[in-house]
Amino acid sequence: MKFGRLAGITWIKHLALVVLVCIGLPLQQQPAAAQQARSPRLANDWCYPFPGDSGWEYMCRISVFEGSTQAFVAYGYSPSWSRDGLRIAFTDGFGVYILDRTDDSIVSITDSSTAGQPFIFAPRWSPDGTRIAYISAPAGGAAQLLVVDADGAHAVRLAVSAAASNDWSGSYAWMPSGAAIAFGGDNSGSAELYRVDVGGSNLARLTNGAGFRGGISWSPDAARIAFNCGTTICAVDANGTILSTLTNRVFQAAHTAVFSPSNGAIAFVGYQAGLPANVVMQAPDGTIVRVAPENWTTHPRWAPDGRSLAFVKEGSSGGGACNADGSPCGSPDETFVVNADGTGLTMMGGGHHPEWFAPPPGLPLATFTSQCTGAACQFSAAGSFDPDGTIASYEWKFGDGTTASGSAPAHTYATGATYDVRLIVTDNDGLRDMARTDVTANTPPVASFSVSCVGPTCTFAGSSSTDPDGTIVRYELAFGDGTYVGGDNAPLLPVTHVYRTGTFTATLQVWDNSGVSSVLGTHTLTTTNAPPVAAFTVTCTELVCAYDASASSNPDDAFASFQWQFVDGPWVHGRTATHVYHDPGTYTVTLTVFDSAGQGSSASRTNTVVGYMHIGDLDGRAEVLRKDWNAVATVSVHAGTHGSVAGVVVSGSWDDGTVSSCTTNSVGQCLFIKMGIPRKGNTVSLTVTRAADGMRVYTPASNHDPDGDSTGSRITIRRQ
Ligand SMILES: [Ca+2]
Ligand SMILES: [Ca+2]
Ligand SMILES: [Ca+2]
Ligand SMILES: [Ca+2]
Ligand SMILES: [Zn+2]
């Protein structure tokens, strides 16, 4: 159930904190017989905000702490134990519900179907287990105290408070015998303590102007009733005749006394200057023990044996917007348990309203053992017993929908799994107890597989793995060479794997639907796998080289990768690669190849990258002087791809036999100048004889001249 009425819940929570309802713990202590120890059993509720469809809403859920376990049992709050501890009454704010822990069913015992329903809170089972009391509070109306049978029948209205606005007027507590209820009522504006027999008769007012403020607790012998009276705690005789103050005077304020079930001590919440609210224990001689020091604590609840206390450390997330996004904030309530001497403080879990289950005397104890062979189980309730009688019947719930009776039934499950098995025993007085254990009734799966190899390549098939009473949901196949495959529900097998040379033990483990694993299935295999041999060819066109690793060999399996390492670049992957060099030169290239088993080999080659150059233009001009003239020739040098080349030493020969040279500049040009040519000589010619830069090959056959004033190799300059 979901708690959509935030305002209502907040109001109820507020009310619950102020209306200090006291459970009527049974008087009786644990039987002294040599009975197997029964783990203390504590229920509480935890309300927390969560983002709902229409903003922040509150969710409340009830947990049961038993031994070292915490079990979430229902959505709701204000849990109250049935006498036998097998049912829990609780509310969701609009109805009273009964959780039956023997089958996890929940039934409503109040009518919460009509509109305008009242708020319901504080359901409390009577100590004798026959009746359930609760408070019904219509919005703006008078709160009623009602008592019904455990199935909701025979409702009796015991009291109507005249003013529901007095929160504490809704406080009530069962008399330990269950015969009567003490409750807070309003007498013409003055709150007073009343008692009434559970049938509705013998209504009596027990106080008259004592300042009653709720917090009702019966003493174990039902002789006195404690209650809050202003800043201290009072007690009145059950017949209303003697009024006294209960608490030590060192407390500036004290409230919510709870009588110990065993020794006359009381626990209560006491305020003292400089200290936060504390749960304290006051011994019969007045000695105070702070059992919850340094905490903002409330709601003390004695364990049935009187040796420990549960209490609540109040959080600050009670409700309402707090964060900028409108969400509530703050710490949650927490339930603690502490020994009566203040030792052993333990946080049980989040939540409020701790309620102990108090086993009644003569309660049988259910316990059982199981022995399963595969899915066939033999159960035995031999350890169960009744301390004051006999066990009259055994009821088994095997967790698969089947049931049985008798003290030692056998049961074979149809499907192997882990089952929630419950045994409910009923004694000759009709008292019941339940034991509950997870029983694994399962045959483990069997891992089986086949493997066949072609060379080093092996194929694994696992269809022969079986789970006789369920299904296989997970495989893990380890190949034995450090690698494995596996996963939940994976369509895993068949799978292939390539091995190195060696002897390997492959193992298969499978898991069934119960999470049970098989023993390992194994196969040992020996494989031969030669490492690959790297080899490659290289073909260069000027500075562009193509590499091809096809010459590599790996006859027994597939190549996994080819990796090229060039001196002046990153690694390149692929069977073929192309690399463009910046300059001609001699370079070393390394190829590394890997086969499918991860075996590798490398090969290196040194290749020379050649560049070419030629004359790309010759231009000439004459500088005529008074007696003679000068000839100037401009030479442009091209690379093989016709780009300019700087730093080339160009040699030339004039036609009179003189030779000279120049070195090309950044745009690939340089000048030849012949000076002092006599006027009688009308022409001179320059022939380029050589070009060299130490890297490129000069190819004069490629020489050319775009404007046609030379052959590309020879130019004639005329005096003008
Ligand atoms: Ca009994
Ligand atoms: Ca199985
Ligand atoms: Ca190989
Ligand atoms: Ca030219
Ligand atoms: Zn050119």
Describe the structure.
This protein has 720 residues and is mainly beta. It has 5 domains: 6-26 and 42-356, 6 Propeller (Neuraminidase), CATH 2.120.10; 369-441, Sandwich (Immunoglobulin-like), CATH 2.60.40; 450-527, Sandwich (Immunoglobulin-like), CATH 2.60.40.10; 537-609, Immunoglobulins (Immunoglobulin-like), CATH 2.60.40.10; 612-718, Immunoglobulins (Immunoglobulin-like), CATH 2.60.40.10. Helix content is 2%, strand content 51%. It has 1 helix and 57 strands. A 4-stranded antiparallel beta sheet has the order 3-2-1-28, with no helix packed on it. A 4-stranded antiparallel beta sheet has the order 4-5-6-7, with no helix packed on it. A hairpin with a 2-residue loop joins strand 17 (224-229) and strand 18. The N and C termini lie far apart (114 Å). The relative contact order is 0.07. The structure holds calcium ion (4 copies) and zinc ion. One calcium ion binds next to loops.
Strand order of the largest sheet: 3-2-1-28
Mean pLDDT: 87
| Contiguous helical run count | 1
* CATH class bucket of the largest domain: Mainly Beta
Let me know the number of strands. Answer: 57
Low-confidence stretches: 1-34
> Could you give me the name of the CATH homologous superfamily of the largest domain?
TolB, C-terminal domain
Strand content: over 45%
Radius of gyration: 49 Å
Q: What fraction, in percent, of the residue positions are helical?
A: under 10%
The secondary structure category is mainly beta
Total domain units: 5
Oligomer: single chain
Question: What summary fits the major beta sheet?
Answer: 4 strands, antiparallel
CATH architecture of the largest domain: 6 Propeller
